């Protein structure tokens, strides 16, 4: 299970957006849906987030339109400086690596969008003058893989808790990706041979 799904809550949409919360969960995309490992969740102080990233007015307006539960989960409660949270996230990756018998460099980190979560997180690491412990070759895009399936065959996305809470979103994305893997014939439950997978794809209208 050397895979981690992340989700960020931010104050912008650019590559250097200010991050105010990081959520993550260890998972195995090949496993049955709902098979999950340890989680990570930390809020980041707004001052330290803005010192390392940018905000835009449209994102602030978007936050005003979200539910009270989403805003409270992101902006209320204890928060830590960005540097502290990034260092703790590196330690989480090391924990996942140890549980998976791989080096931390080989942990796959999945984000939602080829140009967002992973890019923004690496930008924050650069601003904080820290080095991410996982290798850039192991960045993965959840959205790209999910969209390999035609809409008619794509499993329904379900958020089981609070939408736009970073941890809840990361868990929902991990569970959805497990369902996508199963629909693509890549899941260990059930296991399809390569021939069965291609035969099933050929029969799809």
List the defining traits of the structure above:
16% strand; alpha/beta; 205 residues; 5 strands; 42% helix; 5-stranded mixed sheet; 8 helices
The number of distinct β-strands equals 5
Distance between the termini: 34 Å
**SS-derived structural category:** alpha/beta
Proportion of residues in helical segments: 40-55%
Task: Report the mean per-residue pLDDT as an integer.
Answer: 91
Strand order of the largest sheet: 3-2-1-4-5
Rg from C-alpha positions? Answer: 17 Å
Q: What is the general shape?
A: globular
Question: Mind describing the biggest β-sheet?
Answer: 5 strands, mixed
The DSSP helix count reads 8
- The parts where pLDDT drops under 50 for at least 5 residues are 190-194
Strand content: 15-25%
Spell the H/E element sequence: EEEHHHHEHEHHH
Describe this structure in words.
The protein has 205 residues and is α/β, with parallel strands linked by helices. Helix content is 42%, strand content 16%. The protein is built from eight helices and five strands, in the order βββααααβαβααα. The protein has a five-stranded mixed beta sheet. A hairpin with an 8-residue loop joins strand 2 and strand 3. The two termini are 34 Å apart.
Secondary structure blueprint with pairings:
Blueprint: E1 3-10, E2 19-27, E3 36-43, H1 46-52, H2 57-64, H3 68-75, H4 82-100, E4 108-111, H5 117-127, E5 139-141, H6 142-146, H7 166-183, H8 194-203
Parallel strand pairs: 1-4, 4-5
Antiparallel strand pairs: 1-2, 2-3
């Amino acid at each position: 299970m050397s895979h981690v799904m992340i989700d960020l809550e931010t104050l912008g949409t650019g590559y250097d957006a200010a991050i105010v919360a990081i959520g993550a969960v260890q998972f195995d995309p090949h496993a049955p849906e709902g098979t999950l490992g340890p989680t990570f969740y930390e809020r980041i102080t707004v001052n330290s987030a803005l010192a390392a990233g940018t905000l835009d007015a449209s994102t602030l307006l978007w936050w005003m339109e979200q539910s009270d539960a989403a805003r409270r989960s992101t902006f209320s409660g204890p928060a830590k400086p960005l540097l502290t949270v990034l260092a703790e996230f590196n330690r989480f990756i090391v924990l996942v690596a140890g549980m998976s018998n791989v080096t931390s460099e080989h942990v796959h980190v999945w984000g939602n969008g080829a140009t967002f979560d992973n890019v923004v997180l690496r930008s924050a690491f650069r601003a904080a003058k820290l080095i991410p412990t996982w290798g850039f070759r192991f960045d993965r895009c959840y959205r790209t893989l999910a969209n390999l399936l035609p809409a008619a065959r794509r499993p329904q996305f379900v958020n089981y808790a609070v939408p736009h809470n970073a941890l809840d979103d990361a868990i929902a994305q991990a569970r959805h990706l497990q369902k996508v893997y199963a629909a693509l014939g890549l899941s260990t439950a059930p296991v399809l041979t390569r021939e069965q997978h291609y035969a099933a794809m050929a029969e799809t209208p």
